[in-house]
């Protein structure tokens, strides 16, 4: 018999003080690692990162969005600024809409095969500066806009989460056939969208290309 979940009957931690009280104090490696600019280690990780997740918060709440490209796609402009090109996507602009309301963001950078990650918090602005974006050209296409990030905090995150997830272990990867295709799942989730129309739209996205 399935037990009914009632959020009103759950015990919650009410304060950050309580949360800290029930856990050991952070070690100096954790409490003292926050940088205000990018050092050589941050730069080396960014040069090898092929994937990141952007966290933003706007008037309608929080959002996280993935970005990926070949290593080096995130360009280090100086010790305090990054440029992340905006490639062809679904044009929802969830993250960008949030930044117009609240420019603060957080970004988690991953390097395939490396269990540690790099976290950067800062200020995000959308730029259409053609001269700045030119160096982000791929396959003959320069992005229309990019995300300019002013770094306020940069710090390494330990390997525990990636190791627990066995993210880079091929033996732990699922057989993709265990789940429906993307088009099939969207046909179930989007009101009025048939599987045929979902596949047609997928083909149109594929026609637009990666860049």
Q: What would the CATH topology of the largest domain be?
A: Pnp Oxidase, Chain A
Cross-sheet strand order for the largest sheet: 2-1-5-6-7-4-3
Low-confidence stretches: none
CATH class of the largest domain: Mainly Beta
Instruction: Enumerate how many helices there are, as a single number.
Output: 8
Rounded average pLDDT = 95
Distance between the termini: 50 Å
Describe the structure.
By secondary structure, this protein is of the alpha+beta class. The protein has two domains: 135 residues, Electron Transport, Fmn-binding Protein, Chain A (Pnp Oxidase, Chain A, Roll), CATH 2.30.110; 35 residues, no CATH class. 28% of the residues lie in helices and 26% in strands. A seven-stranded antiparallel sheet has the order 2-1-5-6-7-4-3. A hairpin with a 2-residue loop joins strand 1 and strand 2. Helix 7 crosses helix 8.
Quick structural overview:
The protein is an alpha+beta fold and 211 residues long. The chain has helices at residues 16-21, 28-31, 40-48, 94-101, 130-133, 160-165, 182-189, 195-208; strands at residues 51-58, 61-68, 75-78, 81-85, 104-110, 117-127, 146-157. The protein has two domains: 31-165, Pnp Oxidase, Chain A (Roll); 174-208, no CATH class.
